[in-house]
Amino acid sequence: MKLSIFNKKLELLQNAMIENASEENEIYGDGVNLVNNEHFPITYDFSDQMYMRKMEMKKDTFVISCYHHTDHFWFLLKGKIQVNTNGEIVEHIAPCYEKSTKGAKRLITCIEDCLFINVHKNPSNTKKIKEIEKDLYSFTLEEYNKKEKMSKNINTWQE
Questions:
Q1: Which of 20, 30, 41, 117 could disulfide-link 75, Cβ–Cβ 3.0 to 4.6 Å?
Q2: How many CB atoms lie within 10 A of CB 81?
Q3: Architecture of domain 5-158 in this structure
């Protein structure tokens, strides 16, 4: 996948935020782990071959998503957000849902306090969060392309 101008700018913003991350600056994230703290609490649930990630997001905050390696659904159960995908801004008001496409990276602005849920496939049924996150998300396009190439090679080898 090629890096769009929008995603290039989003990655530059993401890198600047990582460099300035601190409690004092109210910027969270290290570029290696998904944020999960008292400001952006995440809880998880599982069902047969499914993984659900629930995140609470506060009004006047924003989130830069990772690149996703699968198509999946997300649900906004409470609140209002603006989602900027490749320069296209769409406002979502709860309750609503959307299909997220593989390879998407977004800037999500919280206009109201939100409850946001992602639902992904989990074919191995693992409950090891780090393993799931490693399979589903990449922080940079370089990481995304590397994982996709490895996945393609494994799939070709198995056929």
A1: 117
A2: 22
A3: Sandwich (2.60)
